Amino acid sequence: METRKFIIWVSMATMFAACSSDKKSYDATGTFETTEVTVAAEQTGRIMAFDITEGQNIDCGKQVGLIDTVQLQLKAMQVGVTRETFENQKPDVQKQIAALRQQLATAQREQRRSAGLVRDGAANQKQLDDANSAVLVLRRQLEAQISILGNSTRSLSSQSSATGIERSQVIDQLRKCHIVAPISGVILEKYVEKGDFATIGKPLFKIADMNNVYLRAYITSGQLEKVKVGQKVKVFSDYGDNKRKEYNGTVTWISEHSEFTPKTIQTDDERADLVYAVKILVRNDGYIKLGMYGEVNF
């Protein structure tokens, strides 16, 4: 009798252990990824400096290289001189019409004097008509001169503005010769070396933000109602051999479309053919590597 009880107890314990071993310790699995940026050359020329190494941490905005700038600097100087020439050619309108204004003022005084003499009967009407005509001619000459000088000034100003825009374009091209890191992160790959010739669009290096990584996991339709953007979850990095490390995570994205379960992914429901991708933001302590497997509990 005791032997029979022992056998029953062992059988139940075995069944319980089997059931316990079948219970998963996660709700979804996936792999870790992050924001990666491939930096390409924005100018053509010889790479004069390129001081980075793979695995190096770089701050956003830090200059890491330089493409030859000599020709662009010379062009900027040339355009600057051209603009200065246009500015110097602008006429001094007030000085150039000063003589005509003086002549007009003299003619107007003569006009007033002639008008007074005619009223007093000391001069004839022809003398006044001549004075009026002289004033009218000088006024028209002054208006014409002001118009000519104004057109010349506007033309030179337009040419000066055009060269100013051209100079700004050259300065922008010079700025693009300075190779800078667009984000703070780790250099993943380096594609060129100092002395190589760069062309516009040629990849130079790849950088990734390793401080903030994402677990791209997959959930079934039955799990959708349990997950929402902004939800706090527990994430585990999987090192193999049952070695895991726990992190706090935040759901930042849920796919609007289902997809077939990737071959490398395990889901809570192994019968599920269609799953939804989710992204979970995790603050990396330096141990999480890209492509590493991870698990999440909602």
TrEMBL record:
Name of the featured protein: Membrane protein
Source organism of the structure: Prevotella herbatica
Transmembrane domains' residue ranges: none
Alphabetically ordered keywords of this record: Coiled coil
Coiled-coil spans in chain: 83-110
SUPFAM superfamilies assigned to the protein according to its UniProt record, in alphabetical order: HlyD-like secretion proteins
Main location: other
Limits of the Multidrug resistance protein MdtA-like barrel-sandwich hybrid domain: 36-207
Gene3D superfamilies according to UniProt: 2.40.30.170, 2.40.50.100
PANTHER family reported for this sequence: BLL5650 PROTEIN, EFFLUX SYSTEM COMPONENT YKNX-RELATED
Compartments, as annotated in UniProt: Cell envelope
